[in-house]
Amino acid sequence: MSSVPYLPANTGLDTNRPVIQTPTERFGQNRLALVALMLGIAVLALRTGERLANGLWSTEEYAYSPMILIAALYLVWRKRHVFIDDRSRASIVAAVVLVPVLAVHAISVLINNITVSVATILIAAVFSAAFVWGWRPLRKVGFAIATAAFCTPLPGSVVAAITFPLKMFVSRAATKVLSLVGMPVERQGVMIELGNYRLLVADACSGLQSMFSLAAVSMVYIALMDYRSPIRTSILIVAIFPISVMANVIRVLALAFITYFMGDAAGQGFLHGFAGILMFAVAFGALMMLDGIMNRLGVAE
Amino acid sequence: MTDAVAVPGYVGLTRRAVIAGGGMAIAGAGSLLLSARHQAQEVSSIGLSAIVPLTIGAWHNDPSAVPVLPDETEQLSINRAYEETVSRFYRRADGAIVMLVVAHGRPDSGMLAIHRPATCYTAQGFTVSNSHMTTLATPFAGVEADELFAVRDERQEPIVSWTTIGGRQTGFGISQKVEQLRAAWTGKRIDAILVRASTIGPDTPANYDLLKHFLGDLLRGLTPQQRQLLAGIA
Question: Which among A150, A141, A142, A171 is positioned nearest to A249, based on CA atoms?
Fold first, then answer.
């Protein structure tokens, strides 16, 4: 606990705040507040964290989620100097909103709705920070908050509604490309018949989860680039989705070629994982290439 | 504390953080304790496959065919808790067919969500339309059921479905959430059931009548306790 007296900005005017302190020093005085908030959030997230660790996040499709959380926390940490003591900014409204958010969280834990549980933890963290520091610093870490939102598992009904059309699109596109290059290919729904082999485009191949993890990594990339132009940022964010669908078609194509030329075992074994990594590299490379093209075209940063 | 130098009426930074952190900790600890009480109550087998008869009225089980079910990997990833599902294909002498699915599990296991016809059929590539709640007349009492119609390419399925939690009819909307919450709150062992019957054919009243009569015959073949559990009527 800091015993060094300092002048809180209780005059309400920014200009009266002591200016001799560096941002890091100012942040140091907030340590106790930070610890209190972090402890509160940790206790709030106990049950949900346990469920995620034993459930969704331990599955291959959602394994990226903890990384996003760490990345989002890092993005907040980079901007920690924006969290300064300023009572004129503290939002009492945020404290009032916090109460129903916590109630909804408790209900979601009881009925085991993991989507709502995770979302309400994130919302509670944001509103409690607004109560302590006001909305201004939170706007400055808005991008980190948006990144953290990618940790929220999509509701099952949404996943169900999106996955099948995506799978169909990926199967159709892959079949089209395979027949264009002269491979002996037939398609029945999400089943691709290639020579003597049958490839089933499974739920995981829809690319929905990889789209999410790619989006999260891209958000971190965009945040680190520190672009001021909202147009530039928006173009990059919107581009993530078509890019990851295309990358997923490339993954299915890679698997089709591996299976056709090297056999079923190769397509299902180590090379299956390799195709996944390839897909990620292709997608991320495409995003950076798009960014590079915008540099050439002189799109404002 | 740094806030000690504050002027009167100034709620300091640290105090605000303690209030917000404390509020979140209380909410977290409270839901942890309540859910721990409920989580300990495991639902065990009720012998569902023995409860659902192989012959229902004029209908006989045909073991050679199975109805539309959720993806196996999806079932595994969403639901690691106990669950039992009976899925059977029934034929009548005149050639009519009915596919029946009965699922049993915890109210909060996600079972009710993934077996919900609107979700389950959509995930298998069907387009679901004309979904509406209706009171299904049975020989005993009305059952709040969802009627819907699913289409994938040439295949058309009229569907009737309902759920119960602890022997109470819930529907699929907010009242289901309320019953789930009530089940969690009591901290007792509570069974959740989903019943779904479908046939192959167009979206006509005759097909829903067929399903209604089949489900009526199913309920007639059960004991009052089983009827309470499966349909919320004694």
Answer: A171
